[in-house]
Amino acid sequence: MTVMIDGKALADEIVQHVAHDVLAFKLKHKVTPALAVVLVGEDPASGVYVRNKIKRTEQSGLQSIAHYLPENTTQSELDELIDQLNRDESVHGILVQLPLPAHLSEPRVIEAITPAKDVDGFHPENVGKLVTGQPVLVPCTPLGCMIMLKRQMDDLSGKHAVVIGRSNIVGKPIANLLLQADCTVTLVHSRTQNIEEICRSADILVAAVGQPLMVKEHWLKPGVVVIDVGINQISLDGKRKLVGDVDFNGVLSKTAAITPVPGGVGPMTIACLMQNTLTAAQHQLGC
Ligand SMILES: Nc1nc2c(c(=O)[nH]1)N[C@@H](CN(C=O)c1ccc(C(=O)N[C@@H](CCC(=O)O)C(=O)O)cc1)CN2
């Protein structure tokens, strides 16, 4: 019997813990930690994620400050807003929802956010801290994956973890976190040879590649724990359906535990953002 790792239930639990700690923080400092969320343009999926972030911010007792900018916002207008948020002492976390419209530079925006307020953990300074084993603000999706893995497995030490995908947002940071948990880590990608064979030797498989249903049953070793980061929309029998990078129904005979899509990693990403906002506020107030 495979265990279904319930990301929604675990996310609820994390938000409750954050709400408890936020209350204590407010009583101690007479300050409400605040998260500024910036959405540029009309991308429908980004709109849903931002609304969910704001809802969770409120449930956590944090203050949310939303900035909705039009699609034709210029780079200098966005730079100016970030600069203003960086200087505003009542703002503890800044998040610019990605992807940005094509005319705006994501690296420039990521680097413009002051590292102490970078609740996404994407700034090169925070990436450097993560890689050197001194993480403070860790990207939310990888953080959520690690929490789920640690809940599921007593000890990650010595396990062979295979990460499919080398993005800055998920693949690279999760590989580093797994390394810090004493896993033996293999990161595979589109140019890797023998990808199926490498995956077959995994005790932990993290799929973050954005290819619907790519990982099949014969890619897996019996007893593997699978974390599916993919959120892909496909058309099935004329209906739109969300699926992961893993052929969920097809692999269940092999997995010891698996995250579903939806209801797995996605909700954890937003819960970890709440945790990071509180962490950022705690660091800024010297606790
Ligand atoms: N600035 C950032 N931009 C983006 C990030 C990020 O961490 N920071 N990650 C993704 C989008 N994302 C959060 O922003 C995100 C994606 C999906 C979910 C989620 O809960 N998904 C649900 C399904 C939702 C649906 O029905 O469409 C699930 O998996 O159950 C949360 C957050 C890219 N941009």
UniProtKB/TrEMBL annotation:
Enzyme Commission number: 1.5.1.5, 3.5.4.9
Pathway in which this enzyme or protein is active: One-carbon metabolism; tetrahydrofolate interconversion
Domain Tetrahydrofolate dehydrogenase/cyclohydrolase NAD(P)-binding, chain residue ranges per copy: 139-284
Pfam families found in the cross-reference section: THF_DHG_CYH, THF_DHG_CYH_C
Highest taxon, organism lineage: Bacteria
Biological processes per GO annotation: L-histidine biosynthetic process; methionine biosynthetic process; purine nucleotide biosynthetic process; tetrahydrofolate interconversion
Binding positions (NADP(+)): G165, R166, S167, I231
Keyword tags: Amino-acid biosynthesis, Histidine biosynthesis, Hydrolase, Methionine biosynthesis, Multifunctional enzyme, NADP, One-carbon metabolism, Oxidoreductase, Purine biosynthesis
Record GO terms (molecular function): methenyltetrahydrofolate cyclohydrolase activity; methylenetetrahydrofolate dehydrogenase (NADP+) activity
Xref: InterPro entries: Aminoacid_DH-like_N_sf, NAD(P)-bd_dom_sf, THF_DH/CycHdrlase, THF_DH/CycHdrlase_cat_dom, THF_DH/CycHdrlase_CS, THF_DH/CycHdrlase_NAD-bd_dom
Domain called Tetrahydrofolate dehydrogenase/cyclohydrolase catalytic: residue spans: 5-120
One GO CC term, this protein: cytosol
Catalytic reactions on record: (6R)-5,10-methylene-5,6,7,8-tetrahydrofolate + NADP(+) = (6R)-5,10-methenyltetrahydrofolate + NADPH; (6R)-5,10-methenyltetrahydrofolate + H2O = (6R)-10-formyltetrahydrofolate + H(+)
NCBIfam families, sorted: PRK10792.1, PRK14186.1, PRK14188.1
Family, similarity comment: Belongs to the tetrahydrofolate dehydrogenase/cyclohydrolase family.
HAMAP family named in the record: THF_DHG_CYH
Function, in words: Catalyzes the oxidation of 5,10-methylenetetrahydrofolate to 5,10-methenyltetrahydrofolate and then the hydrolysis of 5,10-methenyltetrahydrofolate to 10-formyltetrahydrofolate.
Subunit structure: Homodimer.
Protein name as it appears in the record: Bifunctional protein FolD
